[in-house]
Design brief:
Layout lengths: L1 H11 L1 H17 L1 H23 L13 H16 L7 H24 L9 H19 L7 H22 L1 H6 L1 H43 L5 H8 L12 E11 L10 H16 L13 E5 L3 E6 L11 H23 L7 E14 L7 E4 L1 H11 L4 H13 L6 E5 L1 H6 L2 H4 L3 E4 L15 E7 L1
Parallel strand pairs: 4-6
Antiparallel strand pairs: 1-3, 1-4, 2-3, 4-5, 6-8, 7-8
Amino acid sequence: MNSDNYSAYCKEHADEFRDELRDDASRALRNWPGRTAAFLLIVSSFISWLSMSQSGNPDANKVLFTYALPVAIAFGYPLASLLFARLDKYSRSVLDVFLLSILFGFCLTLHFVFKPIEAGVDPSDLYIALSGQINFVILMTTAFSYHTSFGITLLRNSVYTLLTAVLIYLIDPAYLAINAIQVVQGFLGGIIVSWLFFARIQTRFYYKSIDADTRQHLYKQLSKLVYPHQLARIKAGDQLEDTMPVAQAQAIVNVFDVQGSSNIKHEKTQAFFLEIFRAFSQICMMGYEHNPLKSRAFRLKETGDGFISAIGYPFLTDRVDALADHAVETALLMFRAFNSEVDRFGYSSPIKAAMGLAYNSVQGTFQSSGIRAYDLFGDALIQAYRYEELRKTPVISNIIKEHALTMGLKHYNILIVQEVIYNSLCERYKQLFRAIDLKEIDFHMPQDPDAHFVFYHVLE
């Protein structure tokens, strides 16, 4: 059953299987199998020469060259494939020619051995001495094949064996008649070994491909959970917990929320939010680099109808000396992307959003158990939440509303920033914001007792 699965898989992936066989054949010719075969042929030629010289055979010297072609192929292929890279494409055919040349060399050796035998002389002793070689040579030259179908291998082996038998018959019919069983045994033995060899390659290709496909699938799925630099470091042997910063630092946290999201009644509301968050994630990944770790912002999490990001940690920005400007610029890009998605959504009522920006300490961490998700915690997150929620405070909401009406806006987006962020802005961005004196309205900023002012920007 498994064999059928392997065979079916190889047929479905015939091109990849053919490439695998081609590479295997090339390695066999380049490496120790080819060199070992060539060495054995040289030793065989030398032994035949020595034996024939001792028996006074006048053609003894000729047997030193009967295997010249296969030896030349074995030693010449590695160099030729380096000079002509496309030669590897034909490695399977080269291997077949190599094996066929061994059979021709063997038959040529027999020709020189039997040639000087005089008529009437009984060559039985010589026949017996050489009989075992037919079985071995046919078996070894038909046992290895790198064709995608075993039927092709079977046909090739049949042609090789038949051709060998014809050549031996032409050299000495009596020798073939005496050793016919050796020819058959070599042929059948070659079929058995070549089938085992072919099945092993099929099985290896199946598991290798399945393993590669599985690893590729896992890699793709893991890339949805971690950043590219984390994948690279994990692949290099690092632990997941070492792939992201966990030290304490200062950063600006951006908390985004859709105003009145519970009032949006539409069958594609969830898809609408997902498109918004996808656009925000793309903004966060702008300028992403591995070393040093850098991007426009770090996407922290999505919260149903909200999105939280951090600027300056754990990813650095291109404008470390102007972090506040960078954060406001990023917020404006997000509002622009949000408005584009709202227009595309085409809802019957206006949909607006709010953002809160706060600068304070943050620290990275991996969860201690279960799935090791990366997270941030610290005062910046808490304060950013509070600043975004200021729009819901009646006294502040009324101030923002009155200002928006003077601008002719009944529905509007709101950006609220912390005092320290406003003070760090360039003049161009400062001009966007209006201040609210917390003492005048007798309001104490939750989680930020040192705050004296709150700054907001109203935009369409």
